[in-house]
Amino acid sequence: MPIFNIVKTKPSFQTICEENILSKKIGRDRTYGIYHLDLLQQIKLTEDGMPVIHPCEAMPTRLIGFNNAKTSRRIDCGVHFFIDDYQFQRVWNRPEDYTDLLARFQCMLTPDFSLYTDMPAPMLRWNCYRNRLLGAWWQAQGLQVIPTLQWSRPSSYEYCFDGLPHHSTVAVSTVGVLNDRKATRLWVRGFREALEMLEPSKVLFYGKPIPGYAPPVKCVYYNNETITKLKQIDERKES
Fold first, then answer.
1. pLDDT tens across 165-178, in order?
2. Cα–Cα distance measured from residue 148 to residue 63, given in angstroms and rounded to the nearest whole number
3. What are phi and psi of 167, to 5 degrees?
4. Average pLDDT for residues 9-34, to the nearest whole number?
5. Does the pLDDT of residue 103 top 90, yes or no?
6. Which residues contact 27 (CB under 8 A, 6 or more apart)?
7. In 50-163, which residue ranges form alpha helices assigned H by DSSP?
8. Using CA atoms, how far apart are residues 210 and 208, in angstroms rounded to an integer?
């Protein structure tokens, strides 16, 4: 058998440099992907760096949760994110994968990553930023996107309305608010602040109205479909 001498040569300095540059580029691209810095190229930011949502006057016939969008047979409706965060974390991970799905419907509301009052301030800002970035980016893709109003403690007012349009249709949810007096008071206080700052043309309410509070703005109410379905199930059991 012939014997071959294998000569190992060290990579040149230029090769090592090129490999290091490529490795750093791949790492940088992955980092950009995690934080979606690439999405910022298509949208406008406020002076404080919050993505800007443009006015939208869409009027959905009804609202369904994002968790039901893929299996929904009806598309004459809007898609909301007033559901647990884990059910739509995937849209943050891969927003481009859901553009075509959301485009099927009349409109969509901006995502609603939670702003709980017991969250640290940096986390509140981060979730507010994520909600705004995805909404602004989907608008840039041509989708009808209605901005969702969110707030937490009064200290959050300085940033939670930043980037939202004035004199536009907006959406808000009362789900989980009515069972707690403190939560109800905080909700009304924040909503009044939003009305004063943004002067919306119309508010889409998802959930029951706040007892004893009449908003000084045109409101359109949508039923909480989860509660409606549970009631229907109970009625069937009883019949």
1. 999 999 999 998 99
2. 13
3. 55, 40
4. 60
5. yes
6. none
7. 89-93, 99-103, 121-140, 157-160
8. 7
